[in-house]
Write a structure and sequence with these properties.
The protein is mainly alpha-helical and 214 residues long. The protein has one domain (34-212). The protein is 57% helix and 6% strand. It contains ten helices and three strands, in the order H-H-H-H-E-H-E-E-H-H-H-H-H. The chain has helices spanning 2-23, 33-44, 53-65, 68-80, 96-104, 131-148, 156-161, 172-178, 184-192, 199-212, and strands spanning 85-88, 110-113, 118-121. The protein has a three-stranded mixed sheet with strand order 1-3-2, with helices on one face. Helix 6 (131-148) packs parallel to helix 10 (199-212).
């Protein structure tokens, strides 16, 4: 009985800690975007983040509870924090050269410029506003490949986070026809896409790819 009484405080502390991690994730307000990002990045910086329940809860909260603008702000911040910039066709920071490239290629929806570490979204060529996120996802993969130094599937952790392996894409014939042979693997990987299809997971992939190479 005495032994049980002595151990009770330790047991209580453990139960309390587990409860905090499991149930006490803060309920963020819309103005808490910076807090959400900081908490999520802290989780990503932990080597065990794939098994961290708190990280999954923050990620799920971002995906399910944020409004459209807050979600996009979180994604863009996560992309920018690793040194990758995102420019839209009608944005004030978009260069004249970028705009001309978008205008002269009506089928071009976006591209990644590795020399500037910049994603350009050719929103002038979109038929619907919903295309922006899909294009962003694709170009984020190219940015991640550039940051990591090649295909992402070579890294076991990125492979665990990423899509089915090996890369499969319905655009196989298109890629072989339009891209140089040296770009086939990277382009197929970027087109295959993450299983979740969520842009927050693409931004996470980019962050981790850059972290792994630093």
């Amino acid at each position: 009985m005495k032994k049980i009484l002595i151990m009770c405080p330790q047991i209580i502390r453990k139960i309390f800690a587990i409860t905090i991690l499991t149930f006490a994730l803060p309920i963020y307000a819309e103005e808490d975007t910076s807090k959400i990002i900081n908490n999520y990045i802290q989780c990503l910086n932990a080597k065990t983040f794939l098994m961290d329940g708190t990280c999954r809860k923050i990620r799920n909260w971002i995906a399910e509870k944020t409004n459209y603008y807050q979600y996009d702000e979180i994604v863009e911040t996560l992309v920018n924090v690793v040194g990758v910039q995102t420019y839209y066709y009608d944005g004030v920071k978009t260069t004249k050269k970028d705009k001309t490239q978008c205008e002269n290629n009506k089928g071009l929806q976006g591209f990644y410029d590795p020399s500037r570490r910049t994603i350009v979204i050719c929103s002038n060529n979109f038929e619907t506003s919903g295309e922006a996120r899909l294009v962003m996802q694709h170009e984020i993969v190219h940015a991640a490949q550039h940051c990591y130094g090649g295909t992402l599937s070579r890294n076991s952790m990125l492979k665990a986070l990423y899509f089915r392996q090996p890369p499969i894409s319905d655009d196989f014939e298109t890629v072989l026809e339009l891209y140089p042979k040296g770009e086939w693997v990277n382009e197929l990987e970027a087109r295959a896409g993450l299983m979740s299809g969520l842009v927050i997971d693409y931004a996470t992939l980019l962050y981790l790819s850059c972290r792994e190479n630093n």
